[in-house]
Amino acid sequence: MIDQRHTAPLRLRGLGMRYGTGAWALRGVDTTVPAGRTLAVLGPSGCGKSTLLRLVAGLETPGEGEVLLGDRVLSAPGSTVSPEFRDMGMVFQDYALWPHLRVRDIIGYGLRHGVHRTSAGERGSRVAELVEFLRLDGLEDRRPAELSGGQRQRVAIARALATRPRLLLFDEPLSNLDSQLRGEMREELALLLRRLGTTALYVTHDVSEALALADRVLVLHEGRTVQDASPEEVFGRPASGWVADLAGFSSRIEPDAVTVEDGRAVATVGGSRFVGRDCGEDVGGGGPAAYLHPEAVRLGEGPDALPAVVVSSVFEGRHHRVRVRVGSAGTVLLHSVSPQRPGDRVGLEIEPDGAVIFGGAAEPHPLGSARATQNQVGGPEERHRDALQR
Amino acid sequence: MTPLLERRRAKAGPRPTRRVSPENALGWFILAVLFVLVGAPLLFVLAQGVAPGLGLARDWSVRPELLGEIARRPLWQTSLVNSLTLATGAMLLGGALGTGLALLRHTVAFPGARLLDVAAWALLVSPSFVLAQGWVLFASPSGVAVGTLGVDPSSLVFSPAGLVVITSLIKYPFAYLATSAALHWDDGSYRQAAALAGARPWTVLRTVRIPLLTPAVASGAILVFVDVLGDFGLPAALSAAYSYPTLPYSIYASVRQSPVSFELGGVLSFYLVAIIGAAILLYIRILRGSRYDFLTGAATRVPPPPARYPWLWSGLTALVLAITFGVPLGTSLQVSFSRTLHGGPVPDNLTLEHYADIFSAGSRMSEGIVNSLTIALAAASVTTVLAFLIGVVLTFTGFRARFLIDVAGTVTLAIPGIVLAVGYIFLWNQPFLAGVGLGLYGRAELLVLAGTATALPIAVRLQLGALAQVPASLLNAAALSGARFPTRLRTVLAPLIAPALVSAFAAVLASGIFDLAATTMLAPPSFTTLPVEILAEYDRGRYGYATAGAVVSAVLVMVLAAVSSVIGRRLLGGPTHGSGA
For B576, which residue in chain A has the nearest alpha carbon? Predict the structure, then answer.
């Protein structure tokens, strides 16, 4: 019913932009989103992800590089196909629902005005189709102010789908929702994107959203690509410490040594050892480092436990947020069911899947080649290092 | 996908990329229009100051030394001194009055406090020549004051000091509204922080409140200065009773009274524009130097505490209203219903004959009303649309020369109507324009252009606030739905800011119908307009007829503004029809 046979692959070639003569907001982004797939663009605020989205939407003109949808060049330096001719639908961060129109007029807007105009009958049936598809029955005559947050978002999605776009753009559409609704809408969106089969670009700063919704994740840092890989790989084998931190591995410690044994990285800290995922060299540079996820660190007294000293303990409701110091290697954050006393000596047990370790000097990694993206020019290492040095 | 939709898609298929976007095209168009409406006339005025007769006379030459002649020519000098005296005096007195009333209004609550706001707005939109006529009719030796109250204030009023007082009473709303705006949103936390640091109420006032308020007070006073300096209505109304030539009046006389002297008009316009330009620069500096962004998100409307002696402040408000509003307009109203000026409000003196005259067949006043209304409606329509487009360029596009449009808006705000009108004469009288069929001087269309130029800054400002509240994403969403630029403006932006569009239209209509400066200077000889007719009848001594004309027009304007509000809101703000879904 809501088929998107006209979807097309999106290609970005060396895309870059700067505002005025200032620093580049985005530089050298290369990627391809195969037809029907979803690419999440992930990064903190100011990383250039909104600029990327606006370039793809035709709301900005690139300073370098190109945007292609199928074989059609939509943007190049100095010239841009206007948004109305780009065959794209977009779900805005603030939904951008016109407050003076009713739901049916909002959804049918593109079919009534402008380049996608159709007959009234056709528009009516398309709007009815979308109302049913997005469970908006009974709300057709309401104005945006009379809708809940979730309903507003579904109207925004319906509007974006109405003109049967070849590409769907999502600009942090869940960021305005409260945390519970966000979880529900994330599930809904994941299902929706799969059912639609439309090529989609999804911009977010939320790792779990990116991992849940996308077939591929492009991580941006200071306007440059630092990793372009599957969600599993971004989470399981981040390209750099910065990406690991973004993915939730928030504690960084510096081991005395890192070796690789049977494909696993083994870190040594003050005579104790723990195992983690081998991530090879950190493309951002620097020596050996281990990044630990707070959920993967437990207090324990086993023979391999890492000795540490409690620095602080704060009650957060479901658990106590405990920070411990591991000698001179750094501090580690963990969640504990019981309060801890600052100064107490404790032991840490670390789940191997909850630690990512850089700087392992051993046999070449069998997955090493998979880390570099297939469609990057010059390799992510070079660019990331460049980005960090700017 | 239906075949129809597919065909449309194929048509919309790969298109050549665009070099000139519709947004940029609109920007250049606006710039060109502004140049014709404001830039070129102003350049011609300034050029006439150093090269009198430029393009108009056969033997013109560049004579920059003319600017120095002001030291030797008594009329030029008197005009300059009178203007500066009046503007400076009104700036001080009107500024103090406006600021004091604003402080009162926002410091304590008392019955009728809101009437101070109403009075300020009413005075602001009332044509100054009508108010000034009211004052003259009240204070002249055979006027209403003598007939009704038995006192003769003429010697007090018709003196430089008296004129300063009258002008202050007419123009104080600029200072009142500027200070009120700053007091309206009052962030209590600044005062609380000072109090918690140990400051007593007086110290808080001295060290926190007054310094925060100073820019508003200063800018309000400067606005009074600028408006008085450029005002033509007041000296025009006064000229019948008391000779007090000011720059605008001498400019008018130089071009419209025999012998015509372009050099006088040019030089005096040059000085007027220079002084106003300096004042506006100072004003902008004050606003920039201490911006009002001390208002944080915590700023709220603070309801003032009840006054200790509410009757005292209510009485004071009533007195202020009676003097500023009641005296001039009440006098005009009374005169319009009176047989004679000095007869007083007694039954024998009451008559409807002036109104009957106006509505009698072929009366020049009703002809003037129809003509002025037509011109004002045309100017209001053009101005509202143009101001909307200017607002769009300023708010929603990345047009490179935006700042030029912004500057043009500010400049126009500062140029007195009389100077602009002189510029229109200098420009549209040029033989080369007549040669290509564009000699608009002496044609009614020129009044529409002048009305548009005069009203444009206000119309833009009335819409900018509303436009700034519309998120760009609402327009981007329409673009991505396939709507072209004009469609986006029509279907999304215009309905969203409908109330502002309607307000702008009503304001331009109301002020345009009484636009004295432009019509006096530019109206074709056989083309009767309302303000010129009122002034002419007034000069002839037919005060009842003249004031009745003003009253009829004012009522008509109010009715029209109300009707256009209702219609406009319904047309623009209503739900879209025929959704077809």
Answer: A101
